[in-house]
Amino acid sequence: MTERLYYITPMLTSCEARVVSSHEEGGRFFAVLDRTVIFPEGGGQPADRGMIGEARVTDAKEQDGEVVHETDRLLDAGSSVTVTLDVPRRLDHSEQHTGEHILSGLAHKLFGAKNVGFHMAEDYCTIDLDVFLSEEQLSRLEAEANAAVRRNAPVVPEEMDRAKLDAITIRKKSDVKSDEIRVVWIGGGDIDSCTCCGTHCATTGEVGYIRIVDSQKYKGGTRLWFSCGGRAVREASELTRAMTELARSYSTSRSELPAAVRKQSEELSQAKRELKARTQALCDGIALAHGEEIAVISAEGFGANDVKMLTESLIRGGAKVALAFGRSGGATHYRALRAEGVSAPMNELVKAVNGLMGGKGGGSPAFAQGSAKAPVTEEIISAIRRMLEGWMK
């Protein structure tokens, strides 16, 4: 069985070891050592990375009590090697995992929430709680978590057997059948107590900073995204830079940015309402000027919503069939609409337009629409008009 030095001396970053075995399987290489500082994937935590001699460790998993290292080459069985840990990766994982314990423990103490899921990825971490937490509750949880960080409380792992585990009360107990069980106590249990096989900081102060990034309602509870330590500091710094740049574009300060964005949003909404009203008036004017039963019209600068508005105006203005084209954003949008009592199939009309323009679209006999990259030409308009005239006889 592999001696797991990351439990015995958590801060150890290298060790001497003997290669117990090494083999190739499907073009991948695997090695078992008699001892290691490389943590294998487990407890929601990704595996460490590092080096075994000149071989790079790309992954590590636990199998039958052994730590199986995946490497980029074969190793010599029986040889002595130096195992070196990728320290920044371990530090990041330990910060995230310890922060997860702090958040989960405090969510349970403050709100009775149970952690029913934890995932740590290379660029994000999530916790799933079984109760829904409001924005105010999440804000309090984040504040209490960072207060726990500032306490610099000890994070103490304790090895115990199943009998002792059954006799104590902790937040979460492992269902692992093994008698070798690790319980992690944070602040003597005041902050958290939980069975866990991962790596952790020695004190809460080493986590540095805990940041709740986002949250959403999930399966009746809450899924929250969080980051800790150096990862959280980097994210906060990036967010600050982005906010500063955005505030400068609004000629305001970061603190006044929300108000500036709201003001612009209100102005934009008002401008959209005014533009819609003017477009409607323009469509009504076009319909009034057209005055024919068959209307096939092209309007430069009209988008999909505008051609819809135009066909409706044309029908209200007396047209029996209306087909409007609009060119906007590098695409041609078209919509066909018929008046009540007219039997001409608009879906067949749009199908014909699709064929002429290489476009896509469809609909019902009453109305249909589509779009194409090509601009509409006078030849296409004339061809469609002749087809409609034949239908309407």
Notes on the structure:
It is elongated and about 90 Å long. It starts with a strand and ends with a helix. It has helices spanning 5-8, 87-111, 135-151, 162-167, 229-249, 257-290, 304-316, 346-357, 378-392; strands at residues 3-4, 14-25, 28-33, 35-36, 50-52, 55-63, 66-71, 80-85, 115-120, 125-129, 155-160, 181-186, 192-195, 210-218, 221-228, 294-300, 321-328, 331-338, 360-363, 367-372. The strands form five sheets. Strands 2-3-7-6-5-8 form a six-stranded antiparallel β-barrel. Strands 16-17-18-20-19 form a five-stranded mixed sheet, with helices on both faces. A four-stranded antiparallel sheet has the order 9-10-15-14. Helix 2 crosses helix 3 and helix 6 (257-290) packs parallel to helix 7 (304-316). 37% of the residues lie in helices and 31% in strands.
CATH homologous superfamily title of the largest domain: Threonyl-trna Synthetase, Chain A, domain 2
Unreliable sequence segments: none
- Reading off the top of the CATH hierarchy, the class of the largest domain is best stated as Alpha Beta
Mean pLDDT, rounded to whole units? Answer: 94
Order of adjacent strands in the largest pleated sheet: 2-3-7-6-5-8
Gross morphology: elongated
Task: Give the total of beta strands.
Answer: 20
Number of domains: 3
CATH architecture title of the largest domain:
2-Layer Sandwich
Proportion of helical residues: 25-40%
How far is it from the N-terminal to the C-terminal residue, by CA? 90 Å
Strand content: 25-35%
Main beta-sheet annotation: 6 strands, antiparallel, barrel
